[in-house]
């Protein structure tokens, strides 16, 4: 019983501070290097006509045990996933701010694009 308690406690501890992510892939390109520039476009801003939609990303929280997840962390995780899909532009399509009663993390939803230079 003690081992089970330690095991469950470990899972909660290690998963509590990480935002969850959901990635929907429509098209994949070769992943970009970690230092590649990714342009971030805000809600309501236009994306260039020649941009190729690669997928969608949602960054949120895993459970109600999370510490406060700051906006910059959520955006950085979205940028990392954008590079993994081979994208160089991330358009934020929705942003929910933390609330005292429900979520302690920022929720970021967005589309991943590739734009030829």
State the main characteristics.
117 residues; globular; alpha+beta
Descriptive account of the structure:
About 8% of the residues have low confidence. With 117 residues, this protein is of the alpha+beta class. 25% of the residues lie in helices and 27% in strands. It has a 5-stranded mixed beta sheet with strand order 1-3-5-4-2, covered by helices on one side. It contains 2 helices and 5 strands.
Task: Give the strand order, joined by hyphens, for the main sheet.
Answer: 1-3-5-4-2
Number of helical segments? 2
Average pLDDT level:
80
Strand content: 25-35%
Helix-strand category: alpha+beta
Low-confidence stretches: 9-17
**Most strands sheet:** 5 strands, mixed
Overall radius of gyration:
16 Å
- Amino-to-carboxy terminus distance: 59 Å
What's the arrangement of secondary structure elements?
Elements: H1 2-16, E1 21-25, E2 39-41, E3 52-59, H2 71-84, E4 89-96, E5 107-114
Parallel strand pairs: 2-4
Antiparallel strand pairs: 1-3, 3-5, 4-5
Entry summary:
With 117 residues, the protein is of the alpha+beta class. It has helices at 2-16, 71-84; strands at 21-25, 39-41, 52-59, 89-96, 107-114. Strands 1-3-5-4-2 form a five-stranded mixed beta sheet, covered by helices on one side.
């Amino acid at each position: 019983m003690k081992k089970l308690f330690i095991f469950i406690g470990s899972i909660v501890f290690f998963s509590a501070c990480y935002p969850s992510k959901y990635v929907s892939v429509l098209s994949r390109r070769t992943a970009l290097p970690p230092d590649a520039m990714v342009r971030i476009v805000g809600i309501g801003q236009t994306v260039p006509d020649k941009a190729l939609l690669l997928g969608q990303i949602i960054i949120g929280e895993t459970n109600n045990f999370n510490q406060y997840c700051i906006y910059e962390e959520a955006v950085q995780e979205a940028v990392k996933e954008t590079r993994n899909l081979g994208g160089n532009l991330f358009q934020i399509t929705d942003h929910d701010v933390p609330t005292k009663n429900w979520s302690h993390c920022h929720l970021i939803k967005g589309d991943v694009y590739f734009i030829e230079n």
